[in-house]
Design a protein that fits this description.
Chains A, B: Pathway: Cofactor biosynthesis; (R)-pantothenate biosynthesis; (R)-pantoate from 3-methyl-2-oxobutanoate: step 2/2. The structure is a homodimer. The first copy, chain A, has 13 helices and ten strands. By secondary structure, the first copy, chain A, is of the alpha/beta class.
Chain lengths: 321, 321
């Protein structure tokens, strides 16, 4: 039974450790600190800057300064057991999440993954079978503009849920803390379906923006062939999602197209990663979807074309930069 | 009835006008001149250099110097009626072949197209319904390294045939002239099928090399997903070819893979065009195949993915350079 925690949220001050203190980790970690949590951060490249000056968050909702309670170079230097580990690393082969977080996982530690892609929770859930894994999706435009400097451009909504399904007290409490800090935060009993929903956009616009030579959302939507390709990829994602038990709303393709058409032209996050020579989330966004399709014997020819091409582009991009 | 022309080939000295005096046009034009033809050339960017110094052809089969009889800036300056117009322009929207060659077309002029792609003959055949159109395919590695300077790296074989089908005296004579100059030259009564055969390689390796981020043949073949993509595209080309009446050999996909596997890794011609900022033959190689598939109601999801992406890349590439 989940107790009603609404009344005691002001006294809910959990210990939170951020792993992956980039744009996403810094923004949501900073918000949790504003909500009253004791937030510490694992920083690698930006360690000196953040240790001495904290993280400056330029935000459309008002700038703020986030000073983590502890700033450490790796999880084992934290010296405490957090109530939540907030994992916001990119989902790339280089980032071995179970290995990264192992040293700080206590009996009561819930692991919150705010990351892209599908089927990304399983390796963490397997490595820590007795810990709660909370899967989170961020709908936000935020980027790191320099060491200890984050720019929040738009949005910010979160969706959370327990993996593989359900809702827990820890998830509810965390959601309320986010809401208290001004972050709209839904809790869903079916977060895996929410991930497939988000993938409809991510698996289409992201790869096409890179493979199309670095094109923005409107350029993709304006081309007869390219907008058709976006639709075909989205339809394939719906077929796979349904085959693995997560049927998506019947109008989700049109909703994604229409929703993007009314936005200003912009570069996808994957394109920004590509242009900066950073690894792209090829496996989390495309590879896992193609493999789910294979397991379910669903034909995804457009998706597998994008996957084959993007995999080569990513390998080459990493070597070049 | 086609007369036996074998015995009089030494006295066969036709007037040939080259339109598109790039690598292909210069090499084959130079060879026809060696065979005894009176070869003139339309040059635009390299006019001064070629007018004064001719074209130097570095070749694995022996360097040679090709001095066209006339060098003109446009077809209407030729002042004669050629027996053959050798068209070797890239097949891109900028090059309007009927318009380019109109001024030199006489009653007896045969139009030889040595170009890539499929369904490229129709606009020319429609514009000049009373002239013979000879369709030609070059299997050659040759590139322009500077003004009036061509480098022939390997191969050189030609396949010719009348469009839409058949063999003519003019085609036979031309073939013998090429053979006399050392160019293996097959004459086929079904050149359209020969084009579809060549497209199996061109529609797969060429676009994937560009869209994969600039990869060579072995990189494409080595990747599990990318080699699968190559095969899928090839299989789709076979399906479309069959649907439009040009069934290809059952082992053509494997033959293309095996043939490329034993070659040294190399960059495709489309990748070289892309890297140099030149327009790519997107429509001749992919667009026409996708449209043939649509007319025949054949599903070509891999091919249409490549087409949609490459079209965007080409548009962007032209703007950038």
């Amino acid at each position: 039974m989940i107790p009603n925690t609404t009344n005691n949220i002001s006294s809910f001050q959990p210990k939170v450790l951020i792993v992956g203190t980039g744009a996403i980790g810094s923004y949501y970690g900073g918000k949790l600190a504003q909500g009253g949590a004791h937030v510490s951060a694992v920083c690698r490249s930006d360690y000196e800057k953040v240790k001495n000056h904290g993280i400056y968050v330029e935000s459309v909702r008002g700038d703020f300064h986030f000073i983590p309670e502890k700033v450490v170079r790796s999880v084992d230097a934290y010296g405490d057991v957090p109530d939540y580990i907030l994992v916001a690393t990119k989902v790339v082969p280089e980032a071995d999440v179970p290995k990264l977080i192992k040293a700080a996982i206590g009996e009561q530690t819930a692991i919150l993954l705010i990351q892209n892609g599908i089927e990304i929770e399983e390796p963490v859930a397997s490595a820590f079978p007795n810990n709660e894994v909370i899967s989170g999706l961020a709908f936000i435009a935020v980027s790191r503009v320099g060491p200890g400097h984050i720019r929040h451009q738009d949005y910010g909504r979160l969706t959370l849920g327990c993996y593989p399904s359900g809702v827990s007290e820890k998830a509810e409490n965390l959601s309320k803390l986010f809401e208290k800090a001004g972050i709209p935060c839904d809790v869903t009993p079916d977060v895996v379906t929410a991930r497939w929903k988000k993938l409809v956009w991510n698996a289409s616009f992201n790869p096409v923006s890179v493979l199309g030579g670095g094109v923005d959302t409107q350029t993709m939507l304006n081309g007869k062939e390219s907008s058709r390709l976006l639709r075909k990829v989205m339809e394939e994602i719906c077929l796979v999602a349904k085959a693995v038990g997560h049927e998506l709303p019947h109008d989700i393709v049109q909703t994604n197209i229409d929703g993007t058409l009314v936005m200003k032209p912009y570069k996808t996050s994957m394109l920004l990663d590509f242009e900066a020579g950073r690894p792209m989330e090829v496996e989390a966004i495309l590879g896992n979807a193609v493999r789910a399709a294979e397991r379910s014997q669903v034909a995804v020819p457009h998706l597998e074309s994008l996957y084959a091409l993007l995999k080569m582009v990513d390998q080459k991009n990493r070597r070049t930069f």
